[in-house]
Amino acid sequence: MIFSTHIPLFFTNLLSLEWRIFYTCLATIIVNLPFGYLRGGLQKLSVCWFVAIHAPVPLVILIRQFHGLELSWSLAPFLLGSFFIGQFLGRKIWSVWPLRKKQYSCALNQWFN
Q1: How far is residue 9 CA from its own chain's centroid?
Q2: From the first residue on, what is the mean pLDDT of each consecutive set of 10 residues in the chain (113 residues)?
Q3: How far is the CA of 94 from the CAs of 42, 67, 68, 98, in angstroms?
Q4: Which of 67, 55, 74, 71 is nearest to 26 (CA)?
């Protein structure tokens, strides 16, 4: 008996490739919305600003693996596009409906300055 090293989770083997890509891109946008919102209140090019951009990357990798998608050149534009759309929409939501009018202070900036 041959065992596969990749066991699809839940219903991913029942969905077509197009639907798995669609759900992965949608989840990537949703995951990036709060990070883009947080980035909107931070000083541009600060340490926390970079963290707000790069923190959702492991989550996106987990989402991609959950749907059983291998990273390829044909999938990368969809993932990068949905990543940037989520960050952009989160930033626009902050500009329309900010929690505070002034920018947030970042504790990590004190360590790196």
Answers
A1: 20
A2: 50 75 96 94 88 95 91 94 97 87 64 54
A3: 11, 30, 33, 5
A4: 67
Q: What angle do CA 20, 31, 65 make, to 5 degrees?
A: 40
What distance in Å separates the CA atoms of residue 33 and residue 30, rounded to the nearest whole number? 5
Reduced 3-state DSSP string for 5-58: CCCCCCCHHHCCHHHHHHHHHHHHHHHHHHHHHHHHCCCCCCHHHHHHHHCCHH
In angstroms, the Cα distances linking 24 to 40, 48, 67 are: 24, 26, 7
**Confidence (pTM):** 0.79
